[in-house]
Amino acid sequence: MLEHGGSLARAITRYGIAREDWLDLSTGINPVGWPVPPLPASVWSRLPETEDGLAEAARACYRCDAVLPVAGTQAAIQALPRLRAPGRVHVLSPGYAEHAQAWRRAGHEVAGVSADNLDGASSRADVLVVIHPNNPTGARFAPDRLLAWHGQLAARGGWLVVDEAFMDATNEASLAPHSTREGLVVLRSLGKFFGLAGARVGFVCAPRKLLARLEEALGPWTVATPARAIASAALGEREWQDRTRRRLIRDAARLGALLEKNGLAPDGGCALFQWVRTRDAARLHHRLAQRGLWVRLFAEPQSLRFGLPGAEKDWARLETALGELCRPALTGAAR
Fold first, then answer.
1. Within 13 A of 294's CA, how many CA atoms are on the CB side?
2. Of 42, 89, 134, 172, which sits most exposed with the smallest number of CB within 10 A?
3. What is the pLDDT of residues 14-62, one digit of tens each?
4. Bridge partners of 130?
């Protein structure tokens, strides 16, 4: 099993700090998520029904022609590689590591490719996997460039898989509206922007024939009835989505400025996190954890990913910790 953000139980055990005393910034999940209303009792006693309006709500929200709800995009990440014969797969690196692992486990030849080398990768691979915006670097690509890569791949029967888990704040760059094209697969998630990671709901936007094959591979009832009800309602809340986009963009800029003020100018990021490369990553991660602040540590490249604080007291707590840990080093450097 690969390591992911949100492993707070491990931090609680290691540092001996009670759960309620932690500020978890490790996941990139919206800390002020969609407010889940009370659910009718019937959602707990009925099997999931595909005719409940969830697919229609997702199609309208993502502006796509066909969509398959799945138990989080992780379910699709693991299943999609089994729908192709083994071939050459290039995956954006650094990036969400589950993609490379899933394709490798299915017998494909997998290579990591940096953002600067994706043009060449699209001409050599059978499948190109791009996380957009990238996690953790925040790298972004113009839609026309992505579609050009898709055209190269599709011309020889290949696929472009675009993981848009962090796309919701910048929907204008989404490829979901183009997902009727053969060989284009777009993954969307309810977990990050909507702050509903625990519901385990994701979506695959792709041509209908491919979605039918994926649905058969996954089997029935993949998304629980309560989760389907929550997802349908959240996807339809356009006013909340618009307000949240504006807030997240403001908060991301605020977080970037706070980090830069403390000598940790971000090397990348998006509306839900900021990414900092530093050779001091492991030490800083440990020192923050000693203060009950949990951020995401990456070993290669040595870096930290900071999610957004929610309440003002959380912003103040992060600012205080960074000031205590980073300001003395800045003062010393100035001298």
1. 23
2. 172
3. 999 999 999 999 999 999 999 999 999 999 999 999 999 999 999 999 9
4. 162
pLDDT of residue 292: 97
Interval 279-321: pLDDT, tens: 999 999 999 999 999 999 999 899 999 999 999 999 999 999 9
Tell me which residue has tokens 């009925």: 46
pLDDT tens per residue across span 13-27: 999 999 999 999 999
- Residue 171 contacts residue 143 (beta carbons within 8 Å): no
End-to-end CA distance of the chain: 46
Q: Which residues of the chain have pLDDT under 70?
A: 1-6, 327-335
Residue found by looking up tokens 């502006």 in the block: 63
Identify the structural domains of the chain with CATH numbers, from first to last: 8-28+239-327 (3.90.1150.10), 46-236 (3.40.640.10)
- Looking at residue 165, what is its pLDDT? 97
- The answer to pTM > 0.85 is yes
Token pair recorded at residue 34? 């969609």
For residue 155, the Cα-to-chain-centroid distance in whole angstroms is 29
Q: What is the mean pLDDT of the chain?
A: 94
Q: What is the 3-state secondary structure (H, E, C) of the chain?
A: CCCCCCCHHHHHHHHCCCHHHCEECCCCCCCCCCCCCCCCHHHHCCCCCCCCCHHHHHHHHHCCCCEEEECCHHHHHHHHHHHCCCCEEEEECCCCCHHHHHHHHCCCEEEEECHHHHHHHHHHCCEEEEECCCCCCCCCCCHHHHHHHHHHHHCCCCEEEEECCCCHHHHHHCCHHHCCCCCEEEEEECCCCCCCHHHCCEEEECCHHHHHHHHHHHCCCCCCHHHHHHHHHHHCCHHHHHHHHHHHHHHHHHHHHHHHHCCCCCCEEECCEEEEECCCHHHHHHHHHHCCEECEEECCCCEEEEECCCCHHHHHHHHHHHHHHHHHHHHHHHC
